[in-house]
Specification:
Elements: H1 2-22, H2 25-29, E1 38-39, H3 47-50, H4 57-71, E2 75-78, E3 90-93, H5 98-105, H6 110-121, H7 130-144, H8 156-168, E4 176-177, H9 178-186, H10 191-207, H11 215-221, E5 224-225, E6 231-234, E7 238-242, H12 252-256, E8 258-262, E9 270-272, H13 274-279, E10 281-284, E11 289-293, H14 296-304, E12 313-317, H15 324-340, E13 347-351, H16 356-368, E14 374-375, H17 380-386, E15 391-392, H18 395-404, H19 414-423, E16 425-426
Parallel strand pairs: 4-5, 11-12, 11-13, 13-14
Antiparallel strand pairs: 1-3, 2-3, 6-9, 6-12, 7-8, 7-10, 15-16
Helix pairs in contact: 1-4, 1-5, 6-7, 6-8, 8-10, 18-19
């Protein structure tokens, strides 16, 4: 019984010393330094047992444990003058005893954990996406330098799953459901949501090139969705779609055939799937204005109640940062406008929330699709008309808005940002009538 207690104290002492070692310059450099890892009993979690006046045997057991470790050459102990074998001064971990210390504790050496994690990340340094490849290279380099800060070295399986997902992303079809992806990669439809999604989202928020608003926005940008999404469109948009005859066995004559649609005929608008958007081609845009709408409620309101823009009006719901399928449609519309220059089109507008997110969504759409995009009802006058019913925001949003004031390309937003900072309230699109 006594030896069992001694062995337990040996493991506890060595575990504490190994933690000191793993945080030391000697560990990071991979070679013994001038100063050995050290600790005091009274300054450790063993102090309560060591000074237990109700059970002095605990101190004796700790002394016995130290004596055995010293005899094995793993540690060295110093004693204050006149207190030898009475009160321990310092306990040192000998560098030549580190390997045996790990064996005693049953812990896996931190160096081995780092090496195994680094090996897992090697495929990412050849990833086709720059931002993933850069993260893989930087993380691998940190691990090679034994600087694993922010990484859970004990979750080898979790990082293995993450790497597997990252490697699969470039080959994903748009709108791949989470559970379909999970079943394909892990033969378990829930494993992605239960074990990988949280870590992937954390990584995307750190390294994805664009700052987005919601978790689902980040996942959608890499092709992962809860369920496939539709793109909602209302108004004069004429498209052509291949006929159902077009397939692997279709003739060239079949492939030349197509069906024409004019969205204007559908009073409630239409929802387009990712597959439909991929196949369609634009024949004409006989609209005088195009309006991109951030929020779903407002999209339906615009359909029911005309807005102060020239009719006929083409309305497209973006859902904040547009998902991949909507982006594909916007790109096709943008390309058509650039190449065909429809004479009837007077302007392209975006209507969103008057806040940090709304401004960034506008600039995203302008940068990626429509350089001549103009804001609709996102000006100072509209903001001041509705600010009394606005929603308050905190210091974090203030800091983000202040940062926008320093960025090139946001000069036209300075008056709105100034009012947002003055009132500390954001105006949601749905509240504007």
């Amino acid at each position: 019984m006594a030896q069992k207690s001694v062995d337990q104290y040996k493991r506890r002492i060595l575990s504490l010393l190994l933690k000191k070692y793993e945080r030391s310059q000697s560990f990071q450099a991979g070679i013994p330094g001038k100063q050995r890892p050290q600790m005091t009993i009274k300054g450790s979690e063993l102090a309560k047992d060591y000074d237990d006046e109700m059970d002095y045997r605990k101190r004796e057991l700790i002394h016995n444990a130290l004596q055995e470790l010293c005899h094995e050459g793993i540690t060295e102990v110093t004693w204050p003058k006149h207190k030898e074998n009475i009160e321990v001064g310092k306990v040192y971990l000998n560098f030549e005893g580190v390997e045996r210390a790990y064996l005693h504790t049953g812990e896996k050496p931190k160096g081995d954990k780092i090496r195994q994690l680094a090996e897992l990340l090697i495929p990412l340094v050849h990833h086709p996406w720059d931002w993933v490849r850069t993260w893989g290279e930087e993380t691998y380099r940190r691990l090679e330098e034994r600087r694993p800060s922010g990484l859970d070295l004990d979750d080898h399986q979790g990082y293995g799953d993450l790497v597997q997902v990252l490697l699969a992303l470039p080959g994903l079809e748009e709108n791949t459901p989470k559970r379909v992806l999970s079943q394909k990669l892990f033969q378990d439809s829930k494993r992605f949501e239960q074990g990988v999604e949280r870590r992937l989202l954390s990584l995307l928020r750190k390294i994805y090139p664009e700052e987005l608003e919601k978790d689902e926005d980040y996942l959608d940008q890499v092709g992962i969705v809860e369920n496939p999404k539709m793109t909602l469109v209302f108004g004069p948009l004429e498209i052509e779609m291949p006929t159902e005859l077009v397939g692997n066995s279709a003739t060239e004559e079949d492939r030349a055939k197509s069906l024409g649609f004019n969205f204007r005929a559908f009073q409630g608008g239409l929802g387009l799937s990712a597959e439909s958007i991929k196949e369609l081609s634009i024949r004409d845009i006989p609209a005088r204005a195009i309006l991109l709408v951030e929020n779903l409620t407002t999209y339906h309101e615009v359909i029911r109640h005309p807005v102060q823009l020239s009719a006929p009006l083409l309305v497209i719901y973006t859902g904040g940062f547009p998902h991949k399928s909507t982006q594909r449609l916007l790109k096709k519309i943008s390309t058509f406008i650039e190449t065909q220059n429809p004479l009837s089109l007077e302007g392209i507008y975006h209507w969103g929330d008057i806040d940090y997110g709304g401004i960034r969504i506008f600039e995203y759409l302008k940068e990626h699709f429509f350089p001549s995009l103009r804001p609709y009802r996102m000006d100072v006058v509209t903001y001041l008309d509705y600010v009394t019913t606005g929603l308050s925001f905190g210091e974090e949003q203030c800091l983000k808005l202040e940062q926008l004031l320093t960025l090139p390309g946001y000069e036209t937003w300075h008056p709105v940002i100034t009012e947002l900072l003055r009132h500390r309230k954001r105006v949601e699109q749905e509240s504007i009538r």
